[in-house]
Amino acid sequence: MRLTAGSVALALLVAAPFAAAQLGPNYKCDPATCKLPACYCASTQPPVANPPQFLMLTYDDSIQAAVWPQAQALLNRKNPNGCPVKATWYTQVLYSDPYLVSQWYAQGNEVADHSVTHAPIFAGTYAEVEGMRKWANEYAGIPLGKIKGFRFPYLNYTTDAIAMLAKMGFEYESSMASGTGDMVWPYTLDYGTVNDCLGTAPACGKELNAKGLWEVPMYSTTGPNGIAQLMDPYNLPTLDAPQSPEQVTANYRTTFDAHYAASRVPFGVYLHPTWIGKSVPVGTAANPTATQDGTPKAAAVAAFLDYAMSKPDTWMVTASQMVEYMKNPVPASQLAAQPYMSCTPNPAPPNTICNGLAGDAAAGNAAPETCNLVSGSFRSCYGCPAEAPTLENPSPPTTSTRKRVPTTCDSLWWDPVAGTCLCTADSCKYTDTARPVNLDPASLNAAAANGTTPAGGAANNGTTTPAPGDKQAANSAASVTVTNAMAAAAVGVLAAGFAAW
Ligand SMILES: *[C@@H]1O[C@H](CO)[C@@H](O)[C@H](O)[C@H]1NC(C)=O
Ligand SMILES: *[C@@H]1O[C@H](CO)[C@@H](O)[C@H](O)[C@H]1NC(C)=O
Ligand SMILES: *[C@@H]1O[C@H](CO)[C@@H](O)[C@H](O)[C@H]1NC(C)=O
Ligand SMILES: [Zn+2]
Q: Least CB-packed of 137, 246, 291, 416 within 10 Å?
């Protein structure tokens, strides 16, 4: 295996416009009882008057050298407070380079969970979700409490898996598509979901047992012929004959303008960075080494981001920043003052240790170790494993003398050689209270039964929420037939010869 091609979920087609005013069949959430910060009802209306316009750029799959340049290039812009914009990477273990994962985190971006193997058709099992936490913590130094969100590979989720995420202490999930009629602000799933309600999705209108778990919907854009599109829209209508870069930019702009002019529902740009590099592997059995120049696609996205960021009060944030905002929403004029929007940690972390920031090796300081494994090579500040990570053993033991990040220090300040925390100010002190990793799925139920509070965010003990009343079912847009995100996601992986993960 080589650290080359990225993962590919086909660009998705989502719900076409529908006119129902009611949000989701059976959705019944009373804002008088569902109150912030723990609970928030789905709504197309902003949580406060004059909200900012949020824009979330997210990447999916492995963080590796082959896709790093194009992922970094789109971040070269500033928020209204002058700070670099931030993005979220839904990270899988397989083929990721832990050192780059550390670096992504050290830049202030978000590392979220996207399973260990990304294996089709369903990678939302306990082992997949928990294995990524273990690996990211031990080999990339990401504090467990900073791994707050999950996105299901292929966006394939189940009601059980969503309940599991809540029990595991995740703060949010982000796999549900939102289109015309269900363009809602992020909300908690206490009373079920209002997204993916059409077609064959199993979750809408059902009890989710996911009290306090935020849904950060994936916001679709309107593409050619009014078709809604979700991920990698530059590959539509087909990979061989995609829209022109100008069309892609224009489609993004049109939908963005609609959000901006109306209630400023957040906007999303959802990419697999593998498609936007200089040399995208698109090999087939007949032509295994074929490549495609993805830079016009990257330029189309960049042109849109330039446009969006030129609009006053538009902020590019991580999904976690978005959730922080929802817990305590403020008008746009007050966003810059919110602590979660600050540029860099204060004090700034040292850059003389292997903490993911630049400049380590040149200064004679600790560089990552290079790990040559049967699966290929990767780098880690925290030592090499003796063997390649697998689903069964996502974080094999190391013989390195490097010290792993303890729960009492954020890796930004951790010196893995000396094993000391270099934070001396109160403002950088960190104690991780997240639920410890436990690869035994039974531990989840045991912990809940013991009354342990899972950490990372919501205190959720798996209590069943009242079943939503069903008297509104008659209002559901049952007659509308469209392809929903999950059904479309089923097509999953494309092109023979193209490594799919
Ligand atoms: C739950 O409590 C029991 C009895 O005190 C203990 O043996 C067990 O290890 C605990 N389980 C967890 C996951 O904390
Ligand atoms: C679980 O949470 C509910 C409400 O949040 C609370 O009433 C109940 O006592 C909790 N149960 C345990 C075992 O912590
Ligand atoms: C999702 O996973 C389930 C197994 O949990 C499988 O039966 C189903 O076909 C998958 N759906 C899609 C859309 O891939
Ligand atoms: Zn993926």
A: 246
- Please report, to the nearest 10 degrees, the dihedral formed by the alpha carbons of residues 478, 479, 481, 486 taken in order: 0
3-state percent breakdown (helix, strand, coil) of the chain, nearest 5: 25, 15, 60
Q: Which distant-in-sequence residues (6+ apart) come within 8 Å of 157 by Cβ?
A: 124, 173, 175, 176, 203, 486
If we measure between CA atoms, which residue out of 129, 153, 92 comes closest to residue 489? Answer: 153
The answer to whether 151 touches 90, Cβ cutoff 8 Å, is yes
Rank 50-59, 288-297, 342-351, 484-493 by mean pLDDT and report only the highest. 50-59
Can you tell me which atom of ligand 3 is nearest the CA of 158? 5
**109 pLDDT higher than 90:** yes
CA-proximal residue: ligand 2, atom 1 (nearest): 461
Return d(Cα 208, Cα 261) in angstroms, integer: 33
More reliable by pLDDT, 482 or 168: 168
Burial of 475 (0-12, 13-18, 19+ CB in 10 A): middle
Distance (Å) from CA 326 to ligand 1 centroid: 35
**Could you report the per-residue pLDDT of 440-454, keeping only the tens digit for each?**
999 998 766 655 554
Interval between CA 451 and ligand 1 midpoint (Å): 10
Q: Starting from the CA of residue 203, give the closest ligand.
A: 3
Give yes or no for a contact between 222 and 255, defined as CB atoms under 8 angstroms apart. yes
Query: How far does the centroid of ligand 2 lie from the alpha carbon of residue 164, in Å?
Result: 17
The Cα–Cα gap between 494 and 501 comes to 10
Distance CA(100)–CA(384), nearest Å, equals 14
- What are the pLDDT digits (tens) for 210-226? 999 999 999 999 988 88
Global pTM reads 0.84
Which residue type does 230 have? Answer: L
Alpha carbon distances (Å) from 148 to 165, 319, 353, 457, 498? 10, 9, 25, 7, 30
Give yes or no for residue 16 having a pLDDT over 70.
no
Atom of ligand 1 nearest to the CA of 443: 13
Specify the residue with its C-alpha closest to ligand 1, atom 13.
447
Query: Biggest alpha carbon distance in the chain?
Result: 69
pLDDT at 17 over 50: no
Collapsed DSSP state (helix, strand, coil) of residue 415: strand
Q: Which of 213, 461, 464 to mutate to test the pocket of ligand 2 (most atoms within 8 A of CB)?
A: 461
> Ligand 1 mean position to 361 CA, how many Å?
44
Q: Report yes or no: 150 and 167 within 8 Å, Cβ to Cβ.
A: no
The answer to whether residue 488 scores a pLDDT higher than 80 is no
pLDDT given for residue 238 in this prediction = 86
DSSP 194-208: -SS-STT-SSTTS--
Q: Does the pLDDT of residue 500 top 80, yes or no?
A: no
